[in-house]
Amino acid sequence: MFAVYAESFSSDDPLAGLVVGERPAPEAPEGWATVTVKAASLNHHDLWSLRGVGLREESLPMILGCDAAGLDEDGNEVVVHAVIGDPGRGGDETLDPGRSLLSEKHQGTLADQVVVPRRNLVPKPASLSFEEAACLPTAYLTAYRMLFTQGRLTPGETVLVQGAGGGVATALIILGRAAGLRVLATSRDEAKRSRAVELGAHEAYESGARLPVKVDAVMETVGRATWSHSVRSLRPGGRIVISGTTSGPRLDDAELTRIFFLQLAVIGSTMGTRHELDALVKFLDATGTRPLLDRTLPMEQAREGFAAMAGGDVFGKIVFTR
Ligand SMILES: NC(=O)c1ccc[n+]([C@@H]2O[C@H](COP(=O)([O-])OP(=O)(O)OC[C@H]3O[C@@H](n4cnc5c(N)ncnc54)[C@H](OP(=O)(O)O)[C@@H]3O)[C@@H](O)[C@H]2O)c1
């Protein structure tokens, strides 16, 4: 079958190991379902995989992609939950120490078909297109859990989103605004700041700029480049929710004094549960809120999408269609 996969790793040139070609069609084990992929979206995770982060040499070749929407064997329209955990464990799948994301241990979604445990299928409402639904399982689910589960944000509170252009960051702006939050955003780029405001941010500032107010919570995916600013932007008792470190995990100053003196909370967040994905889908269906697509490409042109993400030339999600 047609597939986009990693053949080798390169930390400097991640696209060197990317192949747009053919792989054997997957076979669904007992209790798993085969999904015919209609749309799949790209995440920074796919670039990390090509750099050899989170993926082992012995797992190659590996079909990339965490996110998909498509049809199950009965023709039902579904969204695929990308977190694969131990079926016997129960509870919050993101806390399962043995969990993995599609394309880490199990073949990913950038292909004609993907197999997943049947419980990982979430019904897709007719109001969402396949392209929109394919944006949800990683970036939008991560944003949903960051804001509402880990961040415990409620209408009227103020949130700061760092690095406005990213896939998770645009999801945070869109979902935060739709849920009645006051949304502030930062970006290094003037054009991205304008677009963040068009998207729903109340105000957008240059990265590192002093804010006119202290915020209730900061949503972090950038890491080293913005960490100090995130800590300094919080009110006493505020919280940072962190799910990524795009600019690197090693800090020049962790701002520990400020963290204890202002009694700040630092909360990690990773992906989300199947239950949260279902809640997110229903939230979009009920509110009419939609993900922001940077561009839609036929999956055969996947290399173009990977190159755009590697170059940072993205505002919103890159979606591949079949
Ligand atoms: N834990 C999880 O479950 C989970 C899920 C999804 C993503 N993630 C992680 O979250 C991060 C973002 O993912 P994504 O898919 O949204 O990636 P992305 O679309 O590539 O996000 C890139 C954004 O990061 C900002 N940025 C990058 N370098 C920066 C720097 N030096 N200084 C300031 N800002 C910088 C940029 O914002 P501006 O250009 O606007 O300044 C850029 O738009 C990644 O590290 C990813 O691995 C984690």
Hetero ligands:
NADP nicotinamide-adenine-dinucleotide phosphate
Shape summary: globular
Average pLDDT number: 96
Output the radius of gyration. Answer: 19 Å
The number of helical segments is: 9
CATH hierarchy: architecture of the largest domain = Alpha-Beta Complex
Separation of the first and last Cα atoms: 12 Å
Number of domains: 2
**Percent helix among the residues?**
25-40%
The low-confidence parts are none
Q: Strand pairing plus helix content: what structural class?
A: alpha/beta
Report on the biggest sheet.
7 strands, mixed
Instruction: Please name the fourth-level CATH homologous superfamily of the largest domain.
Output: Medium-chain alcohol dehydrogenases, catalytic domain
Q: Class of the largest domain, according to the CATH hierarchy?
A: Alpha Beta
Protein name: NADPH:quinone reductase-like Zn-dependent oxidoreductase
GO molecular function, one term: oxidoreductase activity
Organism: Nocardioides cavernae
Domain Enoyl reductase (ER): 13-320
Topology:
Layout: E1 2-6, E2 18-22, E3 32-41, H1 44-50, E4 62-63, E5 67-71, E6 77-80, E7 83-84, E8 100-101, E9 113-117, E10 121-123, H2 130-133, H3 136-150, E11 158-161, H4 167-178, E12 182-187, H5 190-199, E13 203-206, E14 215-220, H6 227-232, E15 234-242, H7 256-261, E16 265-268, H8 274-287, E17 293-298, H9 302-310, E18 317-321
The structure holds NADP nicotinamide-adenine-dinucleotide phosphate.
Protein name: NADPH:quinone reductase-like Zn-dependent oxidoreductase
Organism: Nocardioides cavernae
InterPro entries: ADH-like_C (IPR013149), ADH-like_N (IPR013154), ER (IPR020843), GroES-like_sf (IPR011032), NAD(P)-bd_dom_sf (IPR036291), Zinc_ADH-like (IPR052711)
